[in-house]
Amino acid sequence: MAQNGGRLRLLAFESETVADIAAKPARRPGFHRSRGARLLVGLAGFIVSVLITFLGLLAITFFIGRLVPIDPVLAVVGDRAPRAVYEAARLQMGLDQPVPIQFIRYVASVLSGDLGTSVSTGKLVLDDLKRVFPATLEMATLGIIIGVLLGVPMGVYAASRRGSLVDQIIRVIGLLGYAVPAFWLGLVGLAVFYARLKWVAGPGRLDIFYDGLIDPVTGIVLIDSLLAGETDIFFNALWHLALPASVLGFFSLAYIARMTRSFMLDQLSQEYVTTARVKGVSERLVIWRHAFRPILVPLITVIGLSYAGLLEGSVMIETIFSWPGIGNYLTVALLNADMSAVLGATLVIGAVFIGINKISDVLYRVLDPRAR
């Protein structure tokens, strides 16, 4: 009887196990469908968000072009053009149409890649931006690398040594990054490190001797020189890039170090950090494994915003260092009342800012399961 009862229980257990296993595949398709539906909804929402934001950027740039006290027709035909020529140009530019029609035409032209023709250069604005934007990207990228490599360890160290002399010095550096004007720091850097000490090269992107010796494959001289195997040009470009990138890196460093310190102070005061210390975990592991990892998500957002700020805020630095980037291009366009170039450069900078923000949001969701 005992053996029969054991067999019955074993058979019942096996039947239940088989039934459970057979039932699992029936639930999986619905699970995958619901997960796939959530992914599609999230992707659609992301695309709609980008489109709405970009449409808002188009509206802002359009109305800026209409509100500034600059006549785009006069910028094309000149002040001494006859009235008939002025009216013909005005009709050709579509400025006689109602504002909503002008905006629709503006959106259509931008989406087709037509940003107009620059009065300053006589070329298409899109071609000009393709030529100057890689220079800004090169300088801003090196600047954010300097800011991250120095700012993050400085912020972590300042938080771990709160109240010490090193903490006070790092906090002063952070305040200087907010208080010192960019043009002043750039001029002082040229006077000291270029004119006096001869440690770096002067204004410009390359020495005149090297200008035009390599084909612009990517537009970034450091990459193009390596692709061409021209190490002399690479080091000359790096020599020219060192000072302006360091100036940008200082402002990025100050912001990143300050925010890293703030994030770390919040984490170091948490109970799990105290528990790890009580358990005898080394201070290095407590700082970098227990306290630093949770701040990666907000820190990525800070770095992304800082990078976007370098791309859009390098106008003064590029002017001082005669750097042929989008900031210098925008300054020349403003001085020449070249509204097509101004609006095109503004649109590109805004689009880059939107793109970096959206990438930061995606990384935020990837690294933080709570956001998903």
UniProtKB/TrEMBL annotation:
Xref: InterPro entries: BPD_transp_1_N (IPR045621), MetI-like (IPR000515), MetI-like_sf (IPR035906)
Span of domain ABC transmembrane type-1: 133-360
Record's GO cellular component terms: plasma membrane
Entry's Gene Ontology molecular function annotations: dipeptide transmembrane transporter activity
Source organism, top-level taxon: Bacteria
SUPFAM superfamilies: MetI-like
Its membrane topology: Multi-pass membrane protein
Subcellular location: Cell membrane
Family statement: Belongs to the binding-protein-dependent transport system permease family.
PANTHER family found in the cross-reference section: D,D-DIPEPTIDE TRANSPORT SYSTEM PERMEASE PROTEIN DDPB-RELATED, DIPEPTIDE TRANSPORT SYSTEM PERMEASE PROTEIN DPPB-RELATED
Protein name: Peptide ABC transporter permease
Organism listed in the record: Phyllobacterium myrsinacearum
